[in-house]
Fold:
Amino acid sequence: MPTGVAIRDVRGQLFDAAERVLLRDGPSALTSRAVTTEAGCAKGVLHRHFTDFDAFLAELVLDRIARIDDQAAALHKSAGTGTIAHNITQALLDLFESVAVAIVSLVTSRDGLRAQLREVRPAGVPILTDAATAIASYLTAERELGRITADADVDTLAPTLIGAAHMLFADRQGIPPGAGDVRKVVTAVIAGVEQKPLR
Structure:
């Protein structure tokens, strides 16, 4: 990118470039040079907008977490419709077929990034914790509608679902699981709490 030429939505372009590098080459390949090369801009562009590379990565993670909020709202709205297994399966596919698994690997591999994130998010693993909160909220709504048992422990079920799904998707180089694989896990986890519809 020639000097003096304005770049539209610099942050968005840099975030998208970082995501492409992360998905293609993994967390160890994610450097400021790799990001700016992928984005087609000078290395100094990144450092003009962020104090350092870990600050950039922290903003990337927080930006991707914000997307989960939209998915959470859609999941919550689905309470009372379709089947619980289908709704959760779709939510997990939407989450883990995105960059989420790679972001979790990135967070766990960089001490500086974790330190930056701890300043604004003192507990939990970003992305996974947010997804568990979204599923717990959805399950709470389903419990209130009587579609799962009144004594269902949604605060245990939600992270169990997230952890089990994460294990399915965690092998970045392998063939990703299909909807049937995810549904099988979901069905097994919620089997004890799902209420059978009255005939």
Notes: The chain has a mean pLDDT of 87. The longest helix spans residues 53-77. The radius of gyration is 19 Å.
